[in-house]
Amino acid sequence: MIKQAHSISEELIEWRRDFHQHPETGFDVFRTAGIVADELEKMGYRVTRSVGKTGVVAEIGEGGKLVAIRADMDALPIFEQNETEYVSLNEGKMHACGHDSHTAMALGAAKILAKEKLNGRIRFLFQPCEETADDEGLSGAQRMYAEGAVAGVDYVIAQHVDPSMPVGTISINEGPSGGGVTSWQATIYGKGGHGAYPHASNDPFVLLTHVIMGINAIVSRRLDPFEPAVISIGAVNGGFTENVIPDKVELKGTIRFTSLEVEKQIREELTRVFEIVKTLGGDYKLNVLFGGMPTMNDKFVSDTIAQVGKDLLGEGSVHPLAKTLGAEDFPEFLKDAPGAMYTLGTRIEGRPIYELHHPKFDLDERALPVGTAVLAETALRFLKS
Questions:
Q1: Residue-range domains of the chain with CATH
Q2: What's the helix, strand, coil split of the chain in %, to 5?
Q3: Rounded to two decimals, what is the model's pTM?
């Protein structure tokens, strides 16, 4: 399998660089999805386009078990700072999370598996909008799931690049490997006035300081210390000039968790914190929107991936997955079938490590055949199990 993957290395690089040069965000992955669908049809897959708005579902084989392989296609609204020959041509958009390589490696696995005599079926899920959501708060995985993309699936697998680990390694574990996500936004209302007469107003910035202190105490003072969770404020907007106290301040943030009970408790505590504003004579509006479940890797699936990694890459090439509260919408595909996501080492030796979502993020393309081989071999193992 490793030899087969290396034999298409040039094609993997060509796909990856093309997607990297033409990044598309959200659900607007029309060019990427079109290329993916066209390539899959050439390989002999039964292709369905426009699933979950702009997703692509492709299946091959007959009867037996059904294994799904998921790859996300969307980029980020980031100005790229790299100086490579394949730098983004779409200003303000960049594949800073490696989805260009996820798509290329899934296409590579599809090409290899199309030539295999399958004892079952393989279904590929090329997904838009992993990084964000639409106006109704739904991501690409949620849209595709709602349209039956994983109906009848027995196992689901996915991979994600890891710029901190060396090429030729994967990381995997059972249980929680990523956080669930809930977004929130709020408006704090005070009473505006002249900056020289603060006593005649009710400064919303002062109200905000109490709210910030309260939010930062939720995890440290209200939650069980053995329950991992994060509450972060990502945006604060208010005021328009230096000598006017505004009427209101707006803020947005994110909640990360691994337990739905903890998520529920945080919601309650967040409301309790904002009630401080009323005590101090102001008012508020708070909107909390559930984004997605934590990623929970199935033991059997994780063990299978780990064994594939050892067989293909060597015993010392499989590592425990560093636990994180970074969120993914991949768990949406795990509602009805066991699955797991592993990470693929893509570190560029001799260069500073630029993490995911950094404007200088890049990867060592020698990892592309490695990820391709692990995806393809894992799918075959499930069909034979």
A1: 2-176+294-384 (3.40.630.10), 180-292 (3.30.70.360)
A2: 35, 30, 35
A3: 0.90
